[in-house]
Amino acid sequence: MSDNKFKSGFVAILGRPNVGKSTLMNHLIGMKIAAVSKRAQTTRKRIQTVYTDDRGQIIFLDTPGVNKAETKLGEFMLDSATETLKTSDMVMWIIEPSSYIGTGEKSIVEMISKAGKLPLALVINKCDTADEQQLEKTETLYTEYLNENGVVVTSVYKVSATEGTRLDDLMTGIYDILPEGPMYFDEDTVTDETERDIAAEFIREKCLRNLDKEIPHGIAVIIDKFSERPDGSLVDIEATIICERESHKGIIIGKKGAMLKRIGIESRKSIEEMLGIQVNLRLWVKVRPDWRNKTSYMSEYGYK
């Protein structure tokens, strides 16, 4: 690649839940934008981030984990991943070391196949959890399956998002694949997400990490107030955590408010790191039964 050719394009990040898509994207751009947890549905809508250097500009499109849709929210997430492929210049499919191809992976192959002949980078994440022999078996298994289904793998990378292993090779490979193009965003742009959006994601992330297994799936977060004080001393944020049941509300608040306080403390720390200023954060909890199947509520909570 000639140094004087500016490369640019949109890269769709696909993968089933919990393979490390958001962790990888956060590491590649060098800033935490997307919420990260071990729970499914951590990423619910497409998150766009931008990486710019002398070689060009990469716009990453982090999509929700591909899974069977059981609610209208699930359908929204699946549609979001499918629609993202239509505007992408290449696909980066994140997988884990594995000895078999599951139903979720097969669904992704079908999505990629329907999207047309987009360049495909197969990224085997969590390479720190497997030996080289297992990684080679995973590569062979997936490339053969993709070829059988009419999808050609452009390149394969073995990385560890958590440890930052071989990420430079991945970035170089992406630039090799992307076409020459314009600078779509100012070089200082990192994301089109607003600070309000990111703050809401951080609060939801802390809920995901602290609450019982089933509760986080029924949680949304809306920012009611986000304002910096005139003297610039701090930012006041008021947010509401939405849940689906009264029993869930009690668990989120916790005994004598202990759980809500913990979520607030952890959220405030992450938001302060993002903003670089002190934050006064106040949280409330409201019940909206079955909101994940009601389009009016979904739209109000940002899932449009």
Provide the descriptors you would attach to this structure in a database record.
304 residues, alpha/beta, six-stranded mixed sheet, three-stranded mixed sheet, globular
Outline the structure in words:
The protein is an alpha/beta fold. The protein has nine helices and nine strands. It has helices at about 20-30, 70-85, 105-115, 130-150, 165-175, 195-210, 245-255, 260-275, 295-300, and strands at about 5-15, 45-55, 55-60, 90-95, 120-125, 155-160, 220-230, 235-245, 280-285. The strands form two sheets. The protein has a six-stranded mixed beta sheet, sandwiched between helices. Helix 6 runs antiparallel to helix 8. The radius of gyration is 20 Å and the shape is globular. The two termini are about 40 Å apart. The relative contact order is 0.14. Residues about 35-45 have low confidence and may be disordered.
